[in-house]
Specification:
8-stranded parallel sheet, 4-stranded mixed sheet, 20 helices
Amino acid sequence: MRNQSREPVEYAVKALLRDIQNTCNTTNEEGTAIVLENADDIPAECFELQASDEMLTLRASDDLGFIYGIYYISKHFLKVNEFWFWNEQIFEKKDGYKIPDDFYYRSEPYNVRFRGWFVNDEVLIDDWKINGDNELPWEMTFEALLRCGGNMTIPGTDHNAHIYCEMASKMGLWITHHHAEPLGAQMFSSAYPDLEASYDKYPELFEKLWREGIEKQKNYKVLWNLGFRGQGDRPFWADDPAYDTDEKRGRLMSQLIRKQYDLIKSYDKDAICCSNLYGETMELYKKGFLDIPEDVIFIWADNGFGKMVSRRQGRHNPRVYALPEAGAGGKHGIYYHASFYDLQAAAQMTMLPNSPEFVVNELKTVYDAKANDYWIINCSNVKPHAYILGLIAKMWNSDFAIDNVEEYASSYLHEYCCTYYGDEYADKISEMYRLWPQYCPKYGPNEDDHAGEQFTNHGARVLTTAFITGFNKKAPSETEAAKEWLWFSDKQTLIEQVADYKKIIETAKDGYEQYLSKCYEVAASLPASVRKLFVDTLVWQVEYHYYSYLGALHTCNAIETAILDKSDDQGMFLKAFYEAGLAAKAFKTGYEKMRSTENGAFEGFFANDCEADIRQSYYVLLGLMSYLRFHGDGPHFYKWQRMFQAGAGGNKVLLILRVKKHLTDEELWEIMDEAGFARM
């Protein structure tokens, strides 16, 4: 560069040098010089590239223009793609890459002003190190965002946002904030754990935290988020019963938003502010109880499944339209989920369960509503969601002149598969991606009611917990329903809920079995390197679903058997124990399949799967096995073992006690399975 060095641009330059090392052989040939030149005539965030006199000149007027230009060079000439790291792109080194003598390119301004990722529910990234480095995963996240044309981030949840905001800023990104952390300030309960988080009682402490947040971030580019939610990312009135009407709630929230607005403007009169109309906040706004300054960007939110309506909270699901009405003034944007966590039916470990066509259509609606001032996308742990994140990035880059949604999504899919798997294999693999939303089952009446992996894992655990804690042995069929599953099935008894759940689970299990078979067939036809990439990016997600549905189905069978089987206690509980063992085995296999894809830099990546947590499903089903064994085999725990273990005394001859040590539940299940119990 022909001016002083700038750190965000240096990050991109270092990345380009690494890309060259990854894609080029070392030779004695002299390469083309790349010159970075300031140019005030280039619009902000845009760049111009021109080849002449054995030189490639990159002209831009700001850091992001240079950064985007550098990553364009990497992608266009070296074929290093946006998700090269996360998709484990395969590179074949060459001696050189030709730049045409007449090459010229000038980028266009983005159609979405502020666009970026919220690194939320980042439980995998947070627990993972690359060669012992816990910062590199975050650097690669922000690099991928910049390669996608992003310019903004919420750099993690809660404490992570405070740790990694400096790195994100140094790499050139604007910083913005979680809707539960106004002005990016520390949460009250973290700063004052022994005090009640009440603004009425401690206004000066809340305002002190806000001022401290501003001071810490005053040297960053910041979009200041204004708002007031409770301390557990929930309505503040959940912990303060004094606010028992919408009018009271809206009045306080409006007062505090105005106070935060005036505070940040006193530091910087040109500060850009935004506020989330999320969940209960949007309902208050729609009812006319919120008063927000006119120049604040209003951020509307989808429901976690990609539909621009209010999210379901527990059993409350009003599905309020979540976009500005026609003719609404002011500035507007969205908070959109490529990943979501709801303890009910969402997808956080695997891809969005709704189709790319659905996403394109919704985002086209967003753009038509003129909500293009701000897009923050929940990217979670990036790797499982690269496909959808890339699609959304394509849309914030495009002019939205989309005549045919299906063709647009299909074109993106083919381009994506060519990019990461190669032209020769793109058609086969594209078909497997295309099938993904077709196998995600519907659990409700709405077009977006398709289930992610939380439906099976949380569902199985919720129903199992209700059975163990509430089993009515005198009247099994009257065992009470699981309260946490009433959102899905509002029946009065557990057995009715299980029946409702099983209708979906059983069909979906069969579907995923077919889907997985198709994936394995395609995988077998691929060369080893492409097969590994295909398994590590898509097939493991199908396996996660298949084994989760298989586990959930056997969980249903176990509970049904324990409640409905008319055998004596020993026979009934023995059959249920075996079904619970099948469920535990399925969940464990799904976990092992996932972990088997960890290679190279991604060693240990899935170790902290703790939100869907297929491993916990396995542990819970082990608990169900133990519970059933207590009922059918306790207190001495020798009857079932004698039935199946050679040399244990047999089922007819009863010795004083036993001649073999006690087997664990899993050991007992294994010998039952080997003995062909399923066929008995």
